[in-house]
Amino acid sequence: MPVVDASPTAPAHPGADFGTLERLDPEIAAVVRGEAEREAAGLQLVAAENFTSPAVLAALGSVLANKYAEGYPGARHHGGCEVVDEAERIAVDRAKGLFGAAHANVQPHSGSAAVLAAYAALLKPGDTLLAMGLPSGGHLTHGAPSNFSGRWFDVVGYGVDARSGLLDYAQVRELARTHRPRAIVVGSISYPRHPDYAAFREIADEVGAYLVADAAHPIGLVAGGAAPSPVPYADVVCATTHKVLRGPRGGMLLCGEELAERIDRAVFPFTQGGAQMHTIAAKAVAFGEAARPAFTTYAHQVVSNARVLGEGLAAEGLALTTGGTDTHLLTVDPAPLGLDGREARARLAAAGIVLDTCALPYGEGRGLRLGTAAVTTQGMGEAQMARVAALFALALRGERRAAGGVRELARRFPPYPDAPFRG
Ligand SMILES: *Cc1c(COP(=O)(O)O)cnc(C)c1O
């Protein structure tokens, strides 16, 4: 294998070289530098985000980006795939080992592409799909009218109990019995609790439906043993690789042997063209990292951090939906402080605290959705979460000193302590 030459004049280079970008395209280099500074300067609490490792970034920025590779290892439509085939074989083996799945497809370009492929493998246009309704925390691919899922399927939405915010399994069962869906989807963009996968399996079996788990958010916790796995229960598991799992932006599918061929054909050639081999190599790196003991520690710390942050926010007067969290995710209602979600997000942003708004289980108001994956990757623990809760409250009250506190805290936990492109 070629070795990276540290000399700035090295002519042959297998991967990213920020110095070259700065020389040849200072305009885009400035964007990259500016984003690195923005990510490091504030508190990144967007629940779907994380900081990938320098090794993942190196694979992403490598010459594997040059390679066309339609098809699967050993059966490609392009020549010269023998080297990159190895990256995909390693990624698939690591994914299977990490999640205890019989089959893995690591080619989906995104979480949405993974869901599209799962539906393509199992459903025909016009089939009925039972998934979490968007106002309750369903993803766009779970039946939004603006998404292919809402256009091509007859989608029935289940919800959460308005008072407890918890999944209402009796309602899921009743809707399944009434509508006889071809597939049931379990998964959400904002549900902070573990779904009961066994209960969903039972309901799916009762009505003869496939069970699709869209574990885009919790799959990283599953990898670290900090959340129950949907793999033993679902016919197909869809996931992203870039959320708590901390890999490159992308998707993944897991299933049993009996659906393996249908899933593979649903990805390529049905919904995608050539695989992105640099991303697949980066996924392999991330799966390798996630198999190490340090990742298990991280995944459990993510959950502890979310619990402590939730307790802190509750003590500051915010209302936590479902009363807390089992995961990296928190959804909170700032209404008790006299703010709606949008105003709250703007005040937090002004202090350098970055997060999203979300729907709430009740009413029309917006809440706030946040997660602890990125700050945990930075090395923050429970003590820092208590501080984040205090800064949150300061920022929501519009106090100027919140911004200084955020900067000071973030400075102590740089996401890339050794990154060559820092300041
Ligand atoms: C993030 C997410 C997706 C989509 O992932 P993209 O990579 O943005 O396409 C799908 N489903 C759920 C539940 C998600 O949280």
TrEMBL record:
Q: The Serine hydroxymethyltransferase-like domain covers which part of the protein?
A: 21-390
Record-linked Pfam families: SHMT (PF00464)
Q: Which UniProt keywords apply?
A: Amino-acid biosynthesis, Cytoplasm, One-carbon metabolism, Pyridoxal phosphate, Transferase
Q: Which GO terms describe its molecular function?
A: glycine hydroxymethyltransferase activity
What catalytic reaction does the record list? Answer: (6R)-5,10-methylene-5,6,7,8-tetrahydrofolate + glycine + H2O = (6S)-5,6,7,8-tetrahydrofolate + L-serine
Residues bound to (6S)-5,6,7,8-tetrahydrofolate: 134, 138-140, 257
- Enzyme Commission number(s) of this protein: 2.1.2.1
Biological pathway:
Amino-acid biosynthesis; glycine biosynthesis; glycine from L-serine: step 1/1; One-carbon metabolism; tetrahydrofolate interconversion
* InterPro entries referenced in this protein's UniProt entry, alphabetically: PyrdxlP-dep_Trfase, PyrdxlP-dep_Trfase_major, PyrdxlP-dep_Trfase_small, Ser_HO-MeTrfase, Ser_HO-MeTrfase-like, SHMT-like_dom
In the record, the note on similarity to other proteins reads: Belongs to the SHMT family.
Instruction: State the oligomer form and interacting partners.
Output: Homodimer.
What name appears for this protein in its UniProt entry? Serine hydroxymethyltransferase
| Organism (species) | Streptomyces cremeus
What gene is this protein translated from?
A: glyA
